[in-house]
Amino acid sequence: MARLRSPVAFIVALAVLVIGTAAVHSASPIGPGQDQHYHTLVAAIAARWRGDAFYQGLYEPLRPLDANTLLYALAYVPEKLFDPVRAFQVTTTTAYFVALPLVTAYALWRTGRWPWGALLSVPLAYVSSWSLGGYWPFLLAAPLMVVVVAESGRALGEEPDARGRAGPGGARPLLVASCAAALCFLAHAHVYTWTMIVVALVALTAIARALASYRADPAAATAQAGTLAARALVIAGPSLVLFGVWFASTHGGAHSATLPSEPGAPSPTFWDKLSLGALALTKGDGEKLFAVGLLAFVATALMFRRAAPGRRVGAYEVAFAATALSWLALPETVLGGQTVASRQLDMGLWLLPLVVAPRAPRHPAWRTALAAALFVLPAARLVMIDEHLRALQGEYAGMRELARACPAERGEIAYVTERVASRHWEGYAMHQPHETFAALCGLDAPVYDPGIYPHNLLPLRYRRGLPAPVVIVSGDPRWPERAVLWERFDYVLVRGRLSGAQDAEARRRGTLLGEDDGWSLWRPRPPRTDR
Question: Inter-axis angle of helices 171-187 and 142-155, to 10 degrees?
Answer without folding.
Answer: 150
